[in-house]
Write a structure and sequence with these properties.
This protein is an alpha+beta fold and 193 residues long. It has helices at 13-22, 46-54, 134-150, 163-171, and strands spanning 2-6, 26-29, 57-61, 69-73, 83-90, 94-97, 100-104, 107-111, 113-117, 121-123, 128-130, 151-154, 159-162, 174-178, 181-183. Helix 1 packs antiparallel against helix 3 (134-150).
Length: 193
């Protein structure tokens, strides 16, 4: 699976969304649905921002998506009888988790966002697993490159982070979750080996 992690604040989400829409992606919220159909967004509007407040994970469709999203009916639990998208079937789709940013105790708690696609997708027509198409890998690379311009490497921390989020961290008004530990200014992770 191709995967890319980055940090940002809630204010940075708009810039990330603008990048993906400029590149021609359509965003599908990762929610549970009453029926096996989901709304696709071609631009950031109030409805999309409301869904992001519920769940910051979006599935991204594009020219590489040859099928509709594949829905699975949930058999039990709180959402029994509702539907959820299976990223390993249909589409294919790319997954984008926007960076987390929660205000707590006078601090902003920053958790990583991620961009990924499965290493294999299920091809229903041929009843076999298949690699993602070259076009999907190309679009994944384009979005990763665009996000890399926003979330730049921060070597002492060993992460990619937006200037806005790094500024909050440097001022002591934010903590960053890295490898399961909350870091604040002055406390940095041990070197990764």
């Amino acid at each position: 699976m191709a995967e890319f992690h980055f940090y940002g604040s809630g204010e940075d989400r708009q810039e990330i969304l603008a990048c993906l829409f400029e590149l021609g992606f359509r965003a599908i919220p990762n929610l549970t649905y009453e029926h096996p159909q989901a709304r696709e967004f071609a631009r950031a509007d109030g409805d999309l921002h409301q869904t992001i407040e519920i769940n910051r994970i979006l599935f991204l469709a594009g020219p590489y998506s040859k099928r509709s999203p594949y829905f699975v009916r949930l058999p039990s639990g709180r959402y029994e009888g509702r539907y959820q998208i299976d990223i390993n079937r249909g589409g294919p789709l790319i997954s984008l988790a926007l960076p987390g940013s929660v205000h707590e105790g006078g601090l902003v708690k920053l958790t990583p966002g991620s961009l990924f696609h499965p290493r294999l997708y299920w091809d229903d027509d041929n009843a076999l697993s298949t690699r993602p198409p070259e076009l999907l890998r190309d679009y994944y690379g384009r979005l990763r490159k665009a996000i890399s311009k926003i979330a730049v490497p921060q070597k002492p921390l060993g992460i990619r982070i937006t200037k806005n989020a790094l500024g909050r961290y440097e001022m002591g008004s934010a903590e960053i979750l890295v490898d399961g530990k909350w870091l604040s200014k002055g406390r940095q992770p041990a070197k990764r080996t």
